[in-house]
Structure formats: structure tokens, C-alpha cells
Write a structure and sequence with these properties.
The complex is a heterodimer.
Chain A (H helix, E strand, L loop, with lengths): L15 H27 L8 E3 L2 H15 E6 L10 E5 L6 E7 L2 E3 L1 E4 L5 E7 L4 E6 L3 E5 L3 E7 L5 E7 L11 E6 L1
Parallel strand pairs in A: 3-6, 4-7, 6-12
Antiparallel strand pairs in A: 1-10, 2-3, 4-5, 7-10, 8-9, 8-11, 11-12
Chain B lengths: L14 E3 L6 E3 H32 L8 H33 L9 H23 L17 H30 L9 H31 L8 H12 L1 H22 L6 H13 L17 H36 L8 H4 L6 H24 L13 H30 L6 H27 L17 H34 L33 H26 L6
Antiparallel strand pairs in B: 1-2
The chains are: A alpha+beta, B mainly alpha.
The complex binds protoporphyrin IX containing FE (HEM) and copper (II) ion (2 copies).
């Protein structure tokens, strides 16, 4: 009876179907918990959370220096659908080198040009609120937090134009916040 | 003269005997069950009206609200639903679970008033601030986003009020035991509620730790807490409170399957152990909201995801088996023995409390559980974090699961506690199906749009210029499902409130039965108590479940393998 206190002895171990199911469920939980360490060592996509504390002004200075020394042109938005995204400096980091992306209300700065098969250390940080780095149409997502320099060691494996969407609420222009990554 | 004993059966105790069940009901508990449940349902309705606006805005073709109001209403919806509706209703459940089943009297009327009024004042305060446009920060209010101090103060009041209510629950349990109001072990429903209450304490303490410094910061008294620290502790509140909801929901599953069919847990020891697993292994599950965060290492993420999660997952997989198994045994004992699934067709599908329970089990298990574990897998989170897949997941746990189970409970609570028979019984019979169906559609729409990269909490997707017709189509499914779910919610709220005013009074007679399958000739209750192989149907369904789980899980690893390598 589920609604009245139990007065007869009720303790007995699992048996029959219940025991079989418990075994299956336990095994499955075990498989799932092994998958993550397995992927950590053998898989290619991992979020290690590598990060360093950084003051927003210091981060901006680093990013500006990066833009200055690696700028290859200007990217202009041909589509007229986004008033907050008209043009950005186009910057090409050295293969194996550092690339900086600044998140601020409401823009990802600057636009990056990467090469397929090369590995980059992509730095993400915010100057104001939290933002969400969401690379489309690939659908890779990382959290961006002011005060934290979040480093992704990333290797583009597909060519084309990619859009960075912001997927953490960051005020009234949130849905307009975007940026660009081009892979050649 | 009032009796000093807390045993309800003692003379002079303000109680009554239920005309339907023959159980003792404490009149104090009854009053606060009524108050908390009604206020909860009012918040559900408020949150539901907001939900309609949200669904019709995310449905990109309709795009109803302006941006500002979309974000405002989203904040409002999250808090009214996830916090106010759920907490008020859970306090009602706790007051029930510690009194009637134990034949005990509520510990203190005063404390119950304090708890109730604090929660009410807090909730109204927070809502006023939100609607006044002073807190467009989402329910998570991630720093450095900052709301008006009244927003945090309101939440703190609700949290402390809830803690006080939980204290009343524990005190009632204690004096019931002390005064010998009952003998033996507490029934599973009370046991599950106790698990919920224990987790609630831990959860609400996290809430205090994070909300108090945020409040003092908003007043300008202290400096800004670190945003990553805020996330870690906030999710200690936000995630663990979901385990409170799961415990409460599972208790309601046991309760309703018992009330409707006389089902009992097939193994009390195992079911209780599963509740204990929830308490022990959920404590660091805030991890799976930080899986792609900076500053939190991979080892920490993996460890806290799997150690904490998978034993709690095991617990849910146990309940997901034992609840239907209990139902199957009860039906077979009633004589519905044909084939593997003969008992299923004979179930009382037109009983709204029962259909709500079954839908809750199925939606929570097949959709909510599977997606939750998968999205909460450390690496898979990379392709899901903050996309619409996330609300797609929790609308089939806390809405299709918990909320629907609570709705089912109301179909008995209202007649038994308010002592009025439901009006609009035909509508009531259809309501769980409309709500459950709508939420399932809403969730599918969200999940598929999210798989195409559509982000959550976003007023518009067209300015980005990256989402094609398929994403728009799924947002349409979200919209239609949302309208349907809102319809179900509205029917529920109107029926409940209408019944309070217009339902036929019950007094001392039994409530009008919603429909239960009769025991067939020659059947015998308890005849299968020692047959451990009588649950063939449940076993088959569970194996189907496991297969679905494995397919979805590995399909997601496959999808992850297709994105760029990243460390
Ligand atoms: C009629 C039923 C409901 C509908 C149509 C509905 C619809 C929605 C929609 C469209 C969103 C916005 C998703 C986004 O753009 O990010 C949302 C968010 C949310 N809903 Fe619901 N919902 C319903 C019921 C509920 C219930 C009963 C709960 C909780 C018990 C709930 C909890 C939430 C939460 C926590 C959020 C996230 C808020 C945020 O992102 O801050 N919903 N819902
Ligand atoms: Cu942003
Ligand atoms: Cu944003």
C-alpha cells in the first residue's frame, strides 16, 4: 500500500524481471560514463575549459594588437538584413598561432580568415556581459564570459563562410549579434 | 479544548474523515494544501499566458511580440513556471504527504502562514519588477546582467518561505513519529516527498549563497561576484531543484497509480534505494550547465557529469520500470491477463489522473530522460549548449513530466481536499491528452530547430541569415504545439477554478469516480505478490526504451564527430 505506513517486513532484494532490468540499466550507465573519458583521449571534439583570467581592457588591447598586425582587408556585409553588422576588419592569424575574438554588445570582432586543416588557438572573451559563441551552420557552441580568456584549440576541416551567432541573452540587441569566420 | 497530541485520531484534533478513502485529514493541512495549490495554479496560468506569447513569437511566421516584450515575458515565464508554480504546488504535496498518510497533524499553522505569505509576497514582488521592465535578465540573471534589487529580494523571499514550509514538513514528520501517530515505516509517497524535501534544502541553500551577494551588489553595498562563480552556484540551485521536481513527480506517479488501480511498488526496498540515489548523486550536477564554460577543467566536467549523473539516472530508470510494473501487476491481479499487453488496453484511459500519469511517465522517460542524459554528456554538449535543444529537453521533463503529473494529481486533490466534484468532466478527460500532445509537439519543434543551430532565448533568427526553411518549419511546429499546450493548460486552470466555485459539494459522501477497471471474476488481489516474472509487458517496453536511448545517444556522438576538432 503506497498511502499507509508499512507494518509487515518489506525488505527483500531485487528478483526476476526487476533484477534483469537493474542489470541492464546499470550496465548502460556504466557504458555512458566510460564514453566520456574514452572520447577525451580518442575523440577529437572536447571542451577542456582552458582559460586565463584577463581584465576586459587588457583583452581588448591584445585583440587590437592582433588585428593591427594580421589585418588582410575589410569584410563588408552585402546582405542588408542586419543593421549592427555592416563591416569588420578581416584578419588572418598565422597557422598554429593565436586568434582573438572580442564579444561585446552586439558584435563579434573582428572577422577571421582561417585555412582548412590548420590549427589555431582561438581566444574568446567578452568586454561586457556574458555571450554565447555559436558557430553556424556547424552548430558548435561555447560560453564566453567577461574576465575569462577562453582558449579553443580549433582545426577547421570544412571550407566556406561561417556565421557566429550569439546564443547567450545579452540585452535587446542579442538576436542581432553576429560575426564571421571564413575558411579557405 | 484542542488536543496537544499530533496524532490525528486523538480526540479534539481538528480533523475529518475522508468520505472516499476513510483516511483522516488534518484541517490545518487541508487549508494550506488548498491555499498553496490554488496560488500555484494561478501562477501556472500567468506563466501559461506568457508561454502563448513566447510560442507565437518564436513561430517566426507569426512573430507576435516586439523584442523587448519577448525578452521580458521570457523572464516572466521562466520564473512563474519553474519557480512559483512548481514550488507552491510542491509545498501543497509536502503538507499532504506528511499528514494524511501518517495519520498526523500539521506541526504548525503559524509557520505555514509565514511560509505561504513570504512566498506570495516574494513572487508578487518579482513579477511586478519584471513586468515593470526593471529585470530583463532571464530567470538565470547571469551577472554582469543586473536587475532591480526587488527582483532578487523577491526570489530570496520565495526561497526562504519555501525553506520554512519544508521545515514545517520535517517537524510534522518528527512529531508524528514521536507521538506514535503511526506504526511501521512511512509509505513510499511520504518517503519520496522526504527525499524531495532534503534535496530542496540543499538546493535552496545554494540559492541563498548566490542570491544574497547578488542582491547586496545590486544595492551597491558589495562588489560584483565573479560571473563564473555565479554560474556554478546558481546551477547548484537551478539544476538540483529539478531533482526535487523529479522526486515529487515520481511520488505522484506512485500515489496516482495506487489511488486509481491499487498498484503498489513491486519492491519497496529497491524503490526507496532509488530515492536515496537521487539525494546522494545529484549534488554536483550543476556541472552539466557548465560543460562548455571557460575555467572549468575537463576532468571536473567529466567526473561531475557521470559520477553524479549516472547513479541518479539509474534511479530514474528504476522508477521508470517499477511504476509501470506495479500497474501491470495490479491489472493482472484484477484478471486482465491476456498476452503481453492485454492489460494495457484495459487501462482506464479516460480517467484524467491516470492518463496524465501514463503520459507523464512516457514523456518524461522516452523524451525527457533520453535527451537530458545525452545533452548533459560532456562533449555532446558542444553541439547543443544554449540551442533550442535545451528548452526542447526541459519542456518534456518539468512540463510534460512534472507539470502533467501534478495536473493529474489535481483531479483527485480538488475533489478530496476541496470536497467538490469536478465540473466539465468531459473536458477533464481530454485535457491531459491535449496538454501532453501539445508539449510533445512543442518539444519536438524546439529540439529539431535546435539541432539546426537555432539558439534559445532569441527573438528573431532571420537577421543572422543562416537558417533555412527547415528551421522555420520546426519553429512552426513549436508554435502550433505551444498553442495546443496552452489550450490544455487553460482548460485545466479553468476547470480547477470553476470547480472551486461551481462544483457539486461532496461533504461526507465519496467523490464521483473517474473510472477504474473492475476486478474480473475469479481474480484475487495479491495473487502475484511473489511472482517475479509477471511483468512481461513492462519488461518489453523497458527494453524498447533502452534501445531508443542507445540509438539517440550514439547518433549524437556521430553528429559530434562531424564538427571541427577542438580542444
Ligand atoms: C503551455 C505550456 C508552455 C509553452 C507553450 C511553453 C513555451 C515556451 C517557450 C516558447 C519558451 C522560450 C524558448 C526560448 O526561446 O528560449 C519557453 C521557455 C521556458 N519554459 Fe516554457 N512553455 C510552457 C510551459 C512551461 C512550464 C509548465 C514550465 C515549468 C514548469 C516551463 C519552463 C520554461 C523555462 C524554465 C523556460 C526558459 C526560460 C529562459 O530561457 O530563461 N514552461 N517556454
Ligand atoms: Cu551576445
Ligand atoms: Cu546574446
Amino acid at each position: 500500500m503506497s498511502l499507509r505506513p508499512l507494518t509487515s517486513p518489506w525488505f527483500h532484494g531485487p528478483a526476476g524481471h526487476e533484477k534483469i532490468w537493474l542489470g541492464c540499466a546499470l550496465l548502460w550507465c556504466f557504458v555512458m560514463s566510460l564514453m566520456m573519458p574514452y572520447w577525451h583521449f580518442r575523440g577529437k571534439q572536447n571542451s577542456t575549459g582552458e582559460a586565463y583570467t584577463v581584465a576586459p581592457v587588457a583583452y581588448l588591447a591584445r585583440a587590437e594588437a592582433f588585428v593591427k598586425s594580421n589585418r588582410v582587408g575589410t569584410w563588408k556585409n552585402q546582405a542588408s538584413n542586419n543593421p549592427l553588422l555592416t563591416e569588420l576588419p578581416l584578419v588572418e592569424p598565422a597557422p598554429g598561432g593565436d586568434a582573438y575574438l572580442v564579444a561585446r554588445m552586439w558584435q563579434w570582432y573582428p572577422a577571421l580568415r582561417l585555412h582548412v586543416g590548420e590549427t589555431y588557438r582561438l581566444h574568446l572573451s567578452s568586454l561586457d556581459l556574458q555571450h554565447g559563441f555559436s558557430l553556424q551552420p556547424l552548430n558548435m557552441n561555447f560560453q564566453v564570459i567577461p574576465g575569462y580568456d577562453h582558449v579553443l584549440t580549433i582545426t577547421p576541416t570544412s571550407r566556406g563562410e561561417f556565421t557566429i551567432v550569439c546564443n547567450e541573452f545579452c540585452g535587446m540587441g542579442h538576436h542581432l549579434m553576429s560575426g564571421k569566420i571564413f575558411v579557405e | 479544548m484542542a488536543s496537544s497530541s499530533h496524532n490525528l485520531a486523538a480526540p479534539g484534533t481538528p480533523g475529518r474523515v475522508c468520505g472516499t478513502t476513510g483516511l483522516h485529514v488534518c484541517l490545518d493541512a487541508q487549508r494550506f494544501i488548498k491555499l498553496n495549490a490554488v496560488v500555484g495554479i494561478v501562477f501556472l496560468l500567468l506563466g501559461g499566458i506568457a508561454a502563448l506569447g513566447l510560442a507565437l513569437t518564436r513561430w517566426q511566421t507569426v512573430h507576435l511580440l516586439p523584442a523587448e516584450w519577448f525578452y521580458r515575458i521570457l523572464t516572466f515565464h521562466g520564473l512563474n513556471m519553474l519557480i512559483f508554480w512548481i514550488l507552491f504546488f510542491e509545498i501543497a504535496i509536502l503538507y499532504f504527504a506528511c499528514t494524511t498518510p501518517l495519520n498526523a497533524r500539521l506541526y504548525s499553522r503559524k509557520i505555514a502562514w509565514v511560509s505561504f505569505l513570504m512566498m506570495l509576497v516574494g513572487a508578487v514582488m518579482t513579477d511586478t519588477v519584471i513586468i515593470g521592465g526593471k529585470a530583463d535578465v532571464m530567470m538565470t540573471s547571469y551577472l554582469p546582467l543586473l536587475a532591480h534589487p526587488g527582483f532578487y529580494l523577491g526570489i530570496i523571499l520565495v526561497a526562504v518561505g519555501t525553506l520554512i514550509g519544508v521545515f514545517n514538513f520535517f517537524a510534522t514528520l518528527y512529531v508524528a513519529k514521536r507521538d506514535g501517530a503511526y506504526t511501521g515505516s512511512v509509505p513510499i509517497v511520504t518517503f519520496g516527498a522526504t527525499a524531495a524535501a532534503i534535496i530542496a534544502v540543499v538546493t535552496l541553500l545554494h540559492g541563498a549563497i548566490v542570491m544574497i551577494p547578488t542582491f547586496t551588489y545590486s544595492m551597491g553595498w558589495t562588489s560584483q561576484p565573479d560571473p563564473e562563480w555565479y554560474r556554478l552556484i546558481w546551477w547548484g540551485l537551478g539544476h538540483q531543484s529539478q531533482q526535487v521536481n523529479v522526486c515529487a513527480m515520481v511520488s505522484v506517479w506512485y500515489l496516482l497509480s495506487h489511488i486509481v488501480l491499487g498498484a503498489r511498488p513491486i519492491n519497496e526496498a529497491v524503490c526507496r534505494t532509488a530515492f536515496v540515489l537521487y539525494i546522494l548523486f545529484i549534488n554536483l550536477a550543476s556541472a552539466h550547465h557548465l560543460l562548455v564554460d571557460p575555467g572549468v577543467g575537463a576532468t571536473w566536467k567529466i567526473w561531475n557529469t557521470s559520477y553524479a549523473m549516472y547513479l541518479a539516472v539509474l534511479a530514474s530508470m528504476i522508477h521508470g520500470f517499477t511504476v509501470p510494473a506495479g500497474v501491470e501487476i495490479a491489472m493482472r491481479e484484477k484478471g486482465y491477463t491476456s498476452g503481453i499487453f492485454g492489460w494495457v488496453t484495459a487501462l482506464p484511459w479516460r480517467n484524467p489522473a491516470f492518463s496524465a500519469t501514463v503520459l507523464s511517465v512516457v514523456i518524461f522517460g522516452f523524451l525527457g530522460g533520453i535527451t537530458g542524459v545525452t545533452l548533459g554528456t560532456q562533449q555532446i554538449n558542444i553541439i547543443a549548449h544554449n540551442t533550442l535543444r535545451i528548452p526542447g529537453h526541459f519542456h518534456v521533463t518539468v512540463v510534460g513530466g512534472t507539470t502533467l503529473a501534478f495536473m493529474g494529481l489535481a483531479y483527485y486533490v480538488v475533489p478530496l481536499i476541496f470536497q467538490r466534484d469536478f465540473i466539465g468532466r468531459g473536458w477533464a478527460r481530454a485535457q491531459p491528452w491535449i496538454f501532453g500532445g501539445g508539449i510533445t509537439m512543442l518539444s519536438l519543434g524546439m529540439s529539431f530547430a535546435g539541432s539546426m543551430g537555432v539558439s534559445r532565448r532569441s527573438w528573431d533568427i532571420d537577421a543572422q541569415g543562416v537558417y533555412g526553411p527547415a528551421a522555420h518549419l520546426w519553429l512552426g511546429v513549436l508554435g502550433i504545439g505551444g498553442v495546443l499546450a496552452f489550450t490544455g493548460l487553460l482548460i485545466f486552470a479553468l476547470l480547477c477554478v470553476g470547480t472551486l466555485f461551481f462544483g457539486a459539494k461532496i461533504q461526507d459522501r465519496a467523490m464521483t469516480d473517474w473510472g477504474t477497471p473492475p476486478a474480473l471474476a475469479g481474480s484475487q488481489a495479491g495473487s502475484l505478490a511473489h511472482d517475479h516474472y509477471a511483468t512481461k509487458g513492462t519488461m518489453a517496453l523497458s527494453l524498447v526504451f533502452l534501445a531508443c536511448f542507445a540509438i539517440y545517444y550514439f547518433a549524437n556522438w556521430k553528429a559530434l564527430a562531424d564538427v571541427w576538432p577542438v580542444r
